[in-house]
Amino acid sequence: MTDEYLWPARNVAEYAYCPRLFYLMEVEGIHLPSEDTESGNAVHKRVDKPSAELDSTSEDAERPAVVRSLTLTSERLGLTATLDLAEVAGQIAVPVEYRKGKPRRGGKEDEPEPWPTDRIQVTMQAMLLEEAGYCVERGVLYYAAEKRRLDLPLTDALRTEAVDTLREARSCAAAARRPPPLLNDRRCEGCSLQPFCLPDEINYLNTPDPPEELTPRRMWPPRDDGLHLIVQSQRSRVSVRGEEIIVMGADDSTAARVSLTTVESVSLLGTPQISTQALHALTAKGIPVAWMTFTGRMLAMLDPLDSVSAETRRAQVRRFDNPGDCLELSRALIAAKISNQRTLVLRNHPEPLPTAMEQMAQCMRKAAEAENLETLRGYEGLAAAVYFPLFGQCLRSDAAEPFRSNGRKRRPAPDPVNCCLSMGYSMLTHECTAALRMARLEPSIGAFHVSRPGRPALSLDLMELFRPLIADSIALSAFNRNELRDGHFFHSAAGCVFTDHGRKAFFEAYGRRMETMISHPVLEYRLSYRRMIRLHARMVAAWLLGEIRDLCFLTTR
Fold first, then answer.
1. What is the per-residue DSSP string for 449-501?
2. How far is the C-alpha of 540 from the C-alpha of 48, rounded, in Å?
3. Distance of CA 517 to the CA centre of its chain
4. Domain 308-544 coded CATH 1.20.120.920
5. Contact 245, 260 (CB under 8 A)
6. 121, 143, 157, 218: most buried by Cβ count inside 10 Å?
7. What's the whole-model pTM score?
């Protein structure tokens, strides 16, 4: 960052609220929507529409001109801001900032007063107006929750506070390292970046024998409120109309209408069409779009450009250039995977298996202590050789016998169970890739899996521990409950593949599994599997950045 950079007053003011929030927003460019931010956008909707150009020659002091969405910059201050509203009468100007919430209370006689962040932001706006040649004696803060307008007299003390905040914010950015998170602070509860920042999780994991009061609060949404739209009909067309996504069927009838605000991702299996207008609308909302084959293999992904953090990527490349760091991450992932495979067999196998379970437990222990990646891959392979025959014995449907004969085979899938597993692993790769993108990590640069062109190596790394928890569990329950059966598959030269009805049945089971709640064994709160994948991606990013020392991945009992 050079001295010519103009700092947004809104982001600089956030430094007074939380230096880490400022760093994530301003330096790394991370902005996540939340209920609070959407409410704030609604409050700003009217004032965000720019007014006509300001006529500075007007001398009508009795009727101030109201100018909305006024953008100001100052090379001298190194600041820029877009004012919600400015009241201008001749050469006298008053900046007006809108806030959705309530003013601060707790001072003298419980009188309302501006929050420090709001106070600093309005002061910076006033200083920019002064740089533009206006006389500014006060600013105004309008708190929509109480419909209250607070005057803020502009003083030298406020100017000094604003300049000091700008200087400290610049120093924070120049340090090129995220500030530590707040410790058990109430401000985190209403922060839109909390699921990315992970303040409680980082403090808890970095504290030896943490006290009970540091136990992470469940501030994450436990489930996905959004819709994960999967379009698989080959003659379907996806378009946008207003604030709705429209899916048209093969007969030109409307198959689905979905509000853009409720969509979290879009997946296109096969060759459905999607309009340029729909891609623009989805990208503007930060909604990723994935193109996949009929069998679920991901071909490409479109995600917004703001999903990149140069600092996180640099840390990823540097750490993964170190074989010791690659081994540390890989050992934790593979040990957790073998543990989850062992638990799945213990829960579902009809007979006690002391010898096989001891073999898997031994592989898990040795994987956690492996001296190099090749040795680790050997223990993973030994565990898989024990696991998949036992997995076949856990199946109770007619599809069990072909799988027991074939074992685990991928390309092509020779039987319905292998077909279901392959689709589950493909969808899980898609989920992990999206989660890593949201964590600002590069999916193609991994630790355990070798990076090759077109291969999301880090996605494959992350999905290892979730394979038995999600994909294997879906296959086991869907066949044992007869949700998937012979009529849902057909055999071709490409192997065993889903019919249209079979894919629909699979995605119904897949959606239920991704929304299933699970408790983290260390952090102790419950999240859906989809949220848990995102948590793990962000914990990997925090580990790469040196914010947490030890990795703790999801294992079930």
1. SPP-TT--HHHHHHHGGGIIIIIIHHHHHHHHTTSS-GGGEEEETTEEEE-HH
2. 38
3. 18
4. yes
5. yes
6. 121
7. 0.83
Q: What is the pLDDT of residues 31-66, one digit of tens each?
A: 765 544 444 444 445 555 555 555 444 455 556 688
pLDDT tens-digit series, residues 334-347: 999 999 999 999 99
pLDDT in tens, 456-479: 999 999 999 999 999 999 999 999
At the topology level of CATH, where does 7-51+59-174 sit? Lambda Exonuclease; Chain A (3.90.320)
The average confidence (pLDDT) of the chain is: 87
Q: What pLDDT was estimated at residue 251?
A: 74
Q: What residue ranges do the domains of the chain occupy?
A: 7-51+59-174, 181-219, 227-305, 308-544
519 vs 202: CA distance, rounded Å:
18
Contact 15, 296 (CB under 8 A): no
Peptide bond preceding 412 in cis form (omega within 30 of 0): yes
500-514 vs 529-544: helix crossing angle, rounded to 10: 60
Amino acid letter, residue 388: F
**Candidate CATH numbers 2.40.240.20, 3.30.70.20, 3.100.10.20, 3.90.1150.10; the one for domain 227-305:** 3.100.10.20
Report residue 271 as tokens: 């060759």
